[in-house]
Description:
This protein has helices spanning about 5-15, 15-25, 30-45, 50-60, 75-90, 105-115, 130-135, 160-175, 190-205, 220-235, 245-260, 290-310; strands at about 65-70, 95-100, 120, 140-145, 155-160, 180-185, 215, 240-245, 270-275, 285-290, 315-320, 320-325, 335-339. It is of the alpha/beta class. The protein folds into three domains: about 5-60, 434 Repressor (Amino-terminal Domain), CATH 1.10.260; about 65-160 and about 295-320, Response regulator (Rossmann fold, 3-Layer(aba) Sandwich), CATH 3.40.50; about 160-290 and about 325-339, 3-Layer(aba) Sandwich (Rossmann fold), CATH 3.40.50. Helix 1 (about 5-15) crosses helix 3.
Amino acid sequence: MAAATIKDVAREARVSVASVSRALNGGGGVTAATSARIHAAAERLQYIPHAAARMLITRRTHTVGALLPDLYGEFFSELIRGIDLAARARGLHLLVSSSHGGATEAAAAVRSMQGRVDGLLILSERVDTAFLRANLPKALPVVLLNSAVSGPAFHVINIDNHGGAVAMVRHLLQAGHRSVALIAGPPGNFDASERERGYREAMARYAPRAALTVVAGDFTEESGYRAGQQLLARTKRPAAVFAANDMMAVGCLAAFKDAGARVPEDIALAGFDDIPITRYVTPALTTVRVRIADFGRLALERLADVVEHPGQETPSADTLGFEIVVRDTCGGNKPEQNS
């Protein structure tokens, strides 16, 4: 049986082809009763609009893009899940790309999406104002995630990296740990730099006489494991360790276990993000909770609003709140939240 055409729907609903096109593509000039009749006819005939023709009429692809620095790991899995769920709720498709090769690769990924997406979500430390102006058409709606870019030209949604780090370090100190070391994230990464800034500010404010200890990491479990080994090898070990993300905290925890160091009795540990695995490791990890899937959902909804109301959405910078989730690795039981 041949697939139904737009002419079949028009005949079934007793209207013109133009009326069917306007009704099914959300245009005006069709009464509510006529629109309902057209949609009912399309459903009976199981009519599927031709995507290319629909694009020509609406000038929309009904697809949004997401450019991320990586697709590996629980953080990005949760972020994509939140974006995808929100996209599907809006009837949108999702096109995902990564840019871990540098600015050149990020530019190539952005250019490859032009003409294929109605809007773009970008989370990449490679992206600054100059990059955006050089590689994006002015008319393409964009929402930036966890970005240092500021100003009236772009929509930005950030995690409260600085505030979360301050709160966690304060919590560790108030739990009785006199010294706190940081496993830092990769150089040049906005999240990492904000979390390190929060660590340094909290130590200066709440433990001004304590020495600062910062060990390099790159947000991977392997770098957390190496950092844990380095911290245990120090003549004077810190009382607590704050890893700038949970993946490094999990690696650090493994290093402590392999060395026979008890957590939290010998050394306390905390992370940042609250990825799903943190509640299942032993002991369960204390962390700064960011509702990652909600972060993706909010970003997609903001982008969809910009796409659907071009020129009406004033660019804004929003910050997603956090919560201190106290589990078993820090030896404290006083939660704190900010939202």
